[in-house]
Amino acid sequence: MTELSTPVNVESLRGAIRAEYAAVAEHPDQGFHFHTGERLAAILGYPEEWIAALPPTVIESMAGTGNPFALGDLRAGERVVDCGSGAGVDSLIAARLVAPGGWVIGVDMTPEMLAKARRNAELAGVQNVEFREGVLEALPVPDGWADVVISNGVLNLVPDKAVALAEIFRVLRPRGRIQLADIVLDRPVPAGSKADVSLWTGCIAGGLLEDELVSLVEGAGFRDVDVRRGVDVFGGAPQHSDAAAFGTIGAGIVGRKP
């Protein structure tokens, strides 16, 4: 099953997403169709002490739809891949959770976010993390390297989710696990609307119904797949969002590689 069954142009979509998140990196106070920064961290239930321990420039460009750390514990010594690592908030938190002995690779396709994440790691004094440029459909990570793959609000932005999930499966070791924060829809997006790039960057057109999402993740080979519904992450955001029209809600996806 491939998700790119609509006339949306992949490169145009990626360009629009890069532009959106370059703005989040460089102008975090301008306001977006989603919440950001400390406000978002509070909505998603990140422990206050985790946020307080990071420099303000780390938190200001935080974006996401859930809390991957609420889906399972990370343990010292584990290797983690953060897909769509953005400004590095989740990567830096993960790096501290897996220390000593653990390592985190953050992967992102937006140069401005990568640059900010690297600066943030230096500011935070976190050394067991690195950030690599790449897309989810071609992760720059060796086969079987990771114990855990996390992401936050990224899978819905990927046109070909089947390929991305196959890549996530590839980089996990046997019995490795996924803790993906994303969205689910209560009402499907009409086929014609899926060609609307603005609905993709609005975290709507790339969303799936819950049973579709489960089928897709299981189709990639994962077992014990479960979707855990979260909170509304678009209501009250600075810019208008059409997310409510489709019953969009944050969700967590867990599963394991056999």
Structure, explained:
This protein has 258 residues and is α/β, with parallel strands linked by helices. It has a single domain, classed as Vaccinia Virus protein VP39 (Rossmann fold). 32% of the residues lie in helices and 20% in strands. It has 9 helices and 7 strands. The chain has helices spanning 10-26, 37-43, 48-52, 56-59, 89-98, 111-124, 161-171, 197-201, 210-219, and strands spanning 79-83, 103-108, 129-133, 146-152, 172-184, 223-229, 249-256. A 7-stranded mixed β-sheet has the order 3-2-1-4-5-7-6, with helices on both faces. Helix 7 links the parallel strand 4 (146-152) and strand 5. Helix 1 runs parallel beside helix 6 (111-124). Mean pLDDT is 91; it is low at 1-5.
